[in-house]
Amino acid sequence: MRIVLVGPPGAGKGTQAAFLAKNLSIPHISTGDLFRANISQGTDLGKKAKSFMDAGDLVPDEVTIGMAEDRLDQADAADGFLLDGFPRNEFQARALDAYLASHGIALDGVLDLEVPEDEVVKRIAGRRVCRNDSAHVFHVDYTPPAVEGVCDTCGGELYQRSDDTPDKVRNRLEVYHRETEPIIDYYKQQNLVVTISALGAVAEVTQRAMAALHRGE
Q1: Strands of the 109-114 sheet, one edge to the other
Q2: Where is this region: NMP (predicted)?
Q3: pTM of this prediction?
Q4: Could you confirm whether domain 2-114+179-213 is CATH 3.60.21.10?
Q5: What are the binding residues?
Q6: What's the pLDDT tens digit per position in 107-128?
């Protein structure tokens, strides 16, 4: 299957992408991984991206599209893929369509993870990260540490990232509504969108997603 995963910040796209990719036996291709790989490998696109990022600027669409196309050209993506974070706007969506058409293939579906805005703010603003290891993540409501402010795993200090405050989260949501949400309407015109609720346990959302993706088969 060839799938695009969309949804607002805090919808759990990364978590669901990993489970869905495993269940469907397709590679999970995330924008973050594309940037990290290209920058660490010193590719031409990676150097271009880093120059914009170091200057505090957004990476141009053309650079992101180039990275995505290079990744889709790799052998493991020949029979399917799950894109997470790309395309992020209609320009990128049209570029992806053109790339796929040039290879005689098309998307099978666009999975839209739906979460109420208040829940997004609660999920992200309640997140606490260990200063010693950013992989140790807790939540003040959903997964609180045994001792407030202390990492259960290593005893490090837990803190709230500067971009996880409620105001910053709402700003990110505004950017999502303005830039990324329009691709849902774009794909709806192609009858590709399936929308599911991303509320509930991770396994429940994964089951919901798998059922939605296989509904038309």
Answers
A1: 28-30, 81-84, 2-6, 109-114, 193-197
A2: 30-59
A3: 0.90
A4: no
A5: 10-15, 31, 36, 57-59, 85-88, 92, 127, 137-138, 161, 172, 200
A6: 999 999 999 999 999 999 999 9
